[in-house]
Every structure is written in structure tokens, then in C-alpha cells.
Specification:
Blueprint: H1 2-19, E1 22-26, E2 34-38, H2 43-51, E3 89-97, E4 102-107, E5 113-118, H3 132-152, E6 155-162, H4 166-175, E7 187-192
Parallel strand pairs: 3-6, 6-7
Antiparallel strand pairs: 1-2, 3-4, 4-5
Helix pairs in contact: 3-4
């Protein structure tokens, strides 16, 4: 097939050279593949040169810009992922806040209760147990319990919220203050387990204060 196409191209170029004294043969759209043919030029040599022309552009010299370094100089300074293989148990801080009380329960990874604090144990009476100040005092006391447990065993912490009382906002504020400075790096997950009743059964009788 290649020999037949070469012969046909030679015949076309010979007939064109007889009719015109000079013409331009453009093999492709690339200017570098164009050739000027006159009546004295051998068409067979031009066809041979066009078939031998490489289809890909020439490569850049090795010392041209930009120069790619062989290795990354910052590769040895990276320390990302150094704690990936480090295994730590995840403890849980259950935070239940209602309009009547605030209960903080600190449990281990297996679910065993380590410490607990309520608004009543902090010295608040009746409806004051569900206020903001009671929730803040519960957060400060449970943080101390967590720090004491941290001296025994390193662990990570998951916060589990339940309820929409004022103590919920008190815990968020306590974590952002100096009292929660040692607790913030331990938190790896936040979970909201507040039950949302859609329809359901009849609500219980309202509590009288």
C-alpha cells in the first residue's frame, strides 16, 4: 500500500511539473513541511524527504527553562500524618441540657461512667439548675475530671449533645475560654442525639414549680 501511494504521488507531481514551471506542494498545514518545487527539481527526492519528515515536533534541549529539580528539597521536612498509626480510645461526654436541669456524664470507650456532674451538685436549687450559670459550672467541673483522667490514659473525646436548654450554649462558651484550653485539642467529633418527636404520643403533664 505504501509503494502504490508513493507511485501515485510521484505521478501527480510529475504531471504538475510539466504544466507549471514552479509551484508549492503543501503536505500538511505545518509550514515546515511545505516545499518549493521548480522545473529543475527531482519530484522523487521531494517525496522521499516528505515521507522521512518526523511527525512529532523536536524536543527541547536538556538545559532549557524551566529546570525540574531531581528531588524535592522539602520532602524530608514534612511531618504530616505522623499520628495516623497512633491508636487512642475515644471517650464520650454526654451533655444533657433541659429547661429544668443540666447533666454532664463522662464515660469511657466501653461505656463505663467515669464521672458525672449536675446542676444540683453544683449548688443550684429548683429552676436555677437549668440556667446558663449552672451549665457553665457543670462544664468547668467536668473539665477537671477529664484532665484528671487524661493523666492516667491518653484518649480522644466525643461530645454528645441532648436537649436545647441553656446549658448547651454554656458548654460551647466554656470550651472557648481558658478553662477548656486543655479540652479543645481532645475533641474529634460532635454528635447531636436530641430526640425530635413528630406527632407521637400525648405529651406528659407540665411540671409545676
Amino acid at each position: 500500500m505504501i509503494d502504490q501511494s508513493c507511485l501515485q504521488l510521484q505521478a501527480v507531481m510529475l504531471s504538475a511539473s510539466k504544466c507549471f514551471p514552479s509551484f508549492i506542494v503543501a503536505a500538511t498545514k505545518r509550514p515546515r513541511l511545505s516545499a518549493f518545487v521548480s522545473s529543475e527539481t527531482n519530484p522523487t527526492a521531494i517525496v522521499h524527504d516528505l515521507l522521512q519528515t518526523p511527525s512529532q515536533p523536536p524536543a527541547a534541549p536538556p538545559d532549557s527553562y524551566p529546570r525540574v529539580p531531581p528531588v524535592n528539597p522539602m520532602a524530608n521536612r514534612r511531618k504530616f500524618g505522623q499520628f495516623i498509626n497512633e491508636k487512642k480510645s475515644i471517650y464520650h461526654l454526654h451533655w444533657t441540657s433541659t429547661k429544668h436541669n443540666t447533666v454532664a456524664t463522662f464515660t469511657s470507650g466501653e461505656g463505663n461512667v467515669v464521672a458525672w456532674v449536675t446542676g444540683g451538685s453544683c449548688g443550684f436549687k429548683h429552676s436555677r439548675r437549668g440556667e446558663y450559670e449552672a451549665g457553665y459550672q457543670c462544664a468547668v467541673r467536668i473539665f477537671k475530671k477529664i484532665e484528671e483522667r487524661l493523666l492516667v490514659e491518653p484518649f480522644k473525646l466525643e461530645l454528645i449533645f441532648k436537649g436545647f436548654g441553656q446549658g448547651r450554649q454554656a458548654l460551647d462558651s466554656a470550651l472557648l475560654t481558658t478553662e477548656g484550653e486543655n479540652i479543645r485539642p481532645l475533641v474529634v467529633r460532635l454528635t447531636d442525639r436530641t430526640p425530635l418527636k413528630i406527632g407521637g404520643t400525648r405529651a406528659r403533664k407540665a411540671r409545676r414549680l
